[in-house]
Specification:
With 195 residues, this protein is mainly α. It has helices at residues 5-15, 19-39, 45-59, 62-73, 81-95, 103-148, 155-165, 167-194.
């Protein structure tokens, strides 16, 4: 069955992006490319700032907020300190492009996120070490008995496996992650409000 010219026109309009949508998509791709270079270490924070400033002059003020939003979207509770610091520096550098920036407020929230991340990691490590200590003495005794029977035992791997599979560890991790993810998400939402 052949479609009428009017039906063909309507179908074409449904799939076509407006000029504004096409431009936004191009800008988003430009930002993605810029951040890809930054995250790979091909650009430092100063070079990122300069390139983003050129984009801002070409496209307008909204690109600054979009750039910060993309950075905020990459934060994770369990990320390396280096990755966290890289994003922190970029967000704060970009904030200086705004005529009425909220640099101090952003810095406070970022400091709170960093403190939360550090406490999260420290408590998890402390709890792991406590459980490891409790399991270690039991496994050492069992390993000694196995060795006298001529068996070879990898005590360190056994300790780690026992701790990570213990109900106490699983319960702790589940509760610890839940509580900290909630606090982390609250800080991320606060960052989004500030940018």
């Amino acid at each position: 069955m052949e479609l009428s010219p009017l039906a063909k026109e309507r179908l074409a309009k449904i799939g076509a992006l407006s000029q504004e949508e096409t431009e936004r998509l191009r800008q988003s791709r430009d930002l993605d490319s810029l951040f890809s270079q930054y995250f790979k270490g091909e650009l430092d924070v100063d070079a990122l700032w300069k390139r983003l400033k050129v984009l801002k002059e070409q496209t307008g003020e909204p690109i600054v907020k979009e750039a910060q939003g993309k950075l905020v979207d990459t934060f994770r509770l369990q990320m390396s300190q280096e990755d966290f610091e890289q994003r922190r520096q970029a967000i704060l550098a970009i904030e200086t492009m705004k005529p009425e920036g909220k640099y101090s407020s952003l810095e406070l929230v970022l400091n709170s996120i960093e403190t939360l991340r550090q406490k999260y990691t420290q408590l998890k490590e402390q709890t792991y070490q406590q459980l490891k200590g409790a399991v270690e003495s039991q496994l050492q005794a069992a390993a000694q008995q196995a060795i006298t029977q001529g068996l070879k035992v990898d005590v360190e791997s056994s300790i780690e496996a026992n701790v990570k599979n213990s109900p106490q560890w699983k319960s702790f991790v589940s509760e610890h992650d839940k509580d900290n993810e909630e606090a982390f998400n609250n800080y991320i939402n606060r960052l989004r409000e500030l940018i």
